[in-house]
Amino acid sequence: MSPRKRFLNPIAISAIAGSALLLFVAVAGPTIWGEAATTTDVSSRLLGASAAHPFGTDELGRDILARVLVATRLTLLLTLGATAIALCGGIVFGLVASILPKHPRRLFTGLLDILLAFPWLLMVLFFTVIWGATATGAMLAIGFAGIPSFARLVYNLAASVSGRDYVRAARVVGVGPIGVLLRHVLPNIANPFFVNAAATASVTLLSFAGLSFLGLGVQAPEYDWGRMLQEGILRIYVNPLAALGPGLAVVLAGLVFTMVSEAVAGSRGAGLRAVRARAAGAVTISARRRELVAETGEPAGDVVAEIRDLRIAFATADGGTIERVRGVDLTVARGEVVGIVGESGSGKSLTAMALAGLLGDDAIVTTSAHTFAGIDMTRAPSPAERARLGVELGMIFQDPLTSLNPALTVGRQLTEVPEVHMGMRPKEARARAADALDAVGIPNAAQRLKQYPHEFSGGMRQRAMIGMAMTGRPRLIVADEPTTALDVTVQRQVMGVLHRAQEETGAAIVFISHDIALVSAFCDRVIVMKDGRAVETLDARRIREDARHPYSKALIACLPDMNSDRTRPLPVIPPELVPEALDETHDDAHDDREVTV
Amino acid sequence: MTTTPPLATADVVDTTTAALAARAEERRLRRGLTPRTAFLLRRLGRLVVSLAVVIMASFLLMYLVPGDPVRAALGQSATPELVEATRIQLGLDKSMPEQFLRFIGGLFTGDLGTSVRLQRPVADVIGQRFPTTLLLAVLAFVIAVVGALPAGIGAAVLARSGRRRGLSMAVSAVLGILIAVPSFLLAVGLISLFAVRLGWLPAAGWGAPADAVLPVIALAIGPMAYLVRIVQVEMLAVLDTTYMTTARAKRLPRRLIHLRHALPNIVTATLTVGGMILAGLTAATVLIEAVFAIPGLGSIMVSSVGAKDYPMVQGVVIVYALIVLGVNLVVDVILATIDPRSSITEG
């Protein structure tokens, strides 16, 4: 993002404008309003709000608005002073801690953590006893109370940076610890540091207001917003603005500091936002595609699931849409194993999720027909249909570490479908779940059911997922890259389990993978997807011979076999066939669908 | 020749962690401890160290005051006789090790010394005022949690995946403001509206149940808004996880999906923040008690700080520290009990 753009976002503009205003009032306030703030007038004491005195007057007849404006200077000076103490102390302690040897370092961070457990205000009060209830004492107290959290922040930042490769490299070439700190660590922690510094200033301002309000900060005849608040609240029935005025000043100034912090933080996320902005400028097509939601009326017969002209689009930030799946037809016969291959972003997983009716509300899904086992999936299912979907449609996801609920026992998760949808009693459901675990080759199933997912290895969790699908009466199992996150040995075992599950239940399987070798070994039929379209359907046994589409051929050519010449580099997909980046503009979004599956 | 690196191998990582856990387990068994006992012992150890730091700090309080602490407390106009009498009362005429032993001994027998300003035992004053502060903090905490859970979950479920953008922006703006306004300023606003303008509730005082309404609201709103945001963010993250898709794939009723599958997964974060809030509330009561003229622990703390009444400050600081440390301990123990993955098993 260009510097110009960075400063043109609303938060940055308000932050700059707010800071400028605060600065102006702080510098010029005492000169402009100083007289009104100090002129006593016994005849006009304790007045309410009026045109002459918008916030009324105090017990000596001084204008409260003028006093609020004049107090800006002292309030800000004390706030910045305390923040500076916290920052300097935090930097020194944090950086020193980061270069200490192991044991003193642990002692130090342990002490910091103990100090951090206490609310800031308590520490401030403690320090106030030491330095006294004066403006300087309060500034020292608030500043010192802020040191531990800042030291911890600096230490964490420095520790995270010093683990990085370029810092290690600097050490290897003989740069000393101080040199590493100054040249490599400090510049790299500057940004998060300033974000937190501005946020700390905001908290400091509020603490100061609180302390002066308690009578432990600024003392008469000096006054800051906190002390004005203390005076105002005694007379809140006479003139509420005497208390609300300074309170409002505190809130507004706090808001300015927060916005500065946000603006600095925002400039860091510039890269991310720039990416999003570019994506927004990409393909924008209308979502009005809901033309022919025709009733198929076709009896379920040999077809388990069918989806026609599937299109999936997502809304972009600028109100347009971007299409990720562009007209896919898919029919799954009873007991058939269909593979879908393609690279990341080809739309294969989206297609599988749409087939199972599990896409989120953010996806704009249109089809001309979508049925599963006689259920029209384009409408909201009836309760009976929901139960059938739960029982007859199983899902297996890519990462077994995240697809089981970590807070529930495996047993709880495997008994749900039998209990909720099949009307089984807990005991029967448990027996069924144990049978399912047994069927996927997990020994000691009854004991295993009492365990939590984190007590299972990755391969076992994926087996448990397959078992979960088998607790119902699956007619279709959608397996979305079920072995990608597993290592090769475990992958083979899981494929074996999936294969047995298919044989035992007679369920059809839609198997999503980027691994064309795996797919062709496991499936009856293979669909090749690219850029949201199905480019080719192949008989799995004749995949090498039948492939016509250049992309399929390229994929297959990348497969080494026993006859591959090992002296030559492996083939790669030619650049013109690499799937297009998703946020690039296409003109051909509507035409040339190569094949109908 | 290029080779594809092996894909992320969850099992390998798993084995390593499992091996580490097994080794830690072995060490514990050698000491004859179950994981839970070991965790509790470790946690108690930290509590003792923290408490020791607090006790040391409060003991050293008088030594940290620049110059003569007695003179600083009594002012320049005090007679030498009074200064000397106070010095003896504070025990400053004894040697430092002797003072320290007496201080520690006093803590164990519940003798926190005598307030210089009130000339009453510190323990009595604290015992008298503690229930008020506790009531304020606990009421505010309960209201904050009870209000925040449904609000946060509701906001997350309604605004999930970019739906109802207007609503979620309005919610986050209101929450942002409520979090940013400190409780004592909010209290001033509440007083001017409900006490001054509408006359519904008293502006200050303590005794009748109505007196507690505005202080508790002022205390509760900020933490509640913060907790709503935490719950909402956590819930949004949980709703987007694969295991929630698994739950949806089972076509479970919404009630089960949200209460059985989602709720337990936000408990950890909610409880952690809840503990911080409760600890923070005890500090916030200091300011709220000042606004509403409530005779609690906070108001005695403030007046003692101003008057440099060292024994009183020491006593209140230790009590506050006990509350904060106790809350942290309770939260950790609850987390360890309900969350199957929590730190119990970590070495």
From TrEMBL, chain B:
Keywords: Cell membrane, Membrane, Transmembrane, Transmembrane helix, Transport. It comes from the Bacteria. InterPro entries: BPD_transp_1_N, MetI-like, MetI-like_sf. The keyword Methyltransferase does not apply. GO terms for biological process: transmembrane transport. It is found in: Cell membrane. Belongs to the binding-protein-dependent transport system permease family. This is ABC transporter permease.
